[in-house]
Design goal:
single chain, alpha+beta, 4 helices
């Protein structure tokens, strides 16, 4: 028996929404994505505000923020999916897609994050909460930033703008 061919884009993965519904990332084909592992009790948690601002700025041009809560770093995301959803809505009025809590490293790493950290062209383990992967309309990772880089930093917004269609 042969191993399946390795994934070539994020569009090949399925995930669960924060409400527990199956979601194919193929539904985001043609869109620019910022995939972020998040946590509610982290020093970078305020980046939820920047993520929401970024989403509001670009969503009408085909941009999506995809947030994946993870409890892999010092127990900084201890909540249930319901608690995480409520925290984000109450404290940051998030409207971008939130997904079910996953693992972004180690033996229980979610297949999407295994791809992002090993086969995407930007290898290396997720170092902490709020690592960011920028994905082009074709589903391939085009850039990556660590936790300290705010989502509204020029380094991020200039790359997003380069991938989005021009304003009409």
């Amino acid at each position: 028996m042969t191993d399946p061919a390795p994934a070539r884009s994020v569009h090949e993965f399925a995930v669960l929404t924060i409400d527990g519904e199956a979601k194919s990332l193929a539904d985001y084909e043609g869109k620019v994505l910022l995939i972020v592992n998040t946590a509610s009790k982290c020093g970078f948690t305020s980046q939820y505000e920047s993520l929401e601002s970024l989403y509001g700025r670009y969503r009408d041009r085909g941009f999506e923020v995809l947030a994946f809560p993870a409890n892999d770093f010092m127990g900084q995301e201890p909540g249930t999916n319901e608690e995480i959803r409520e925290f984000c809505a109450t404290n940051y009025t998030t409207t971008f897609p939130l997904f079910a809590k996953i693992s972004v490293k180690g033996k229980r790493i979610h297949p999407l994050y295994d791809y992002l950290t090993r086969a995407s062209g930007f290898p290396g383990a997720v170092s902490w909460n709020f690592n960011k992967f920028l994905v082009g309309p074709d589903g391939r990772v085009t850039a990556r930033w660590g936790s300290p880089t705010d989502p509204l930093a020029k380094a991020v917004t200039s790359k997003i703008e380069a991938l989005l269609p021009a304003r009409s």
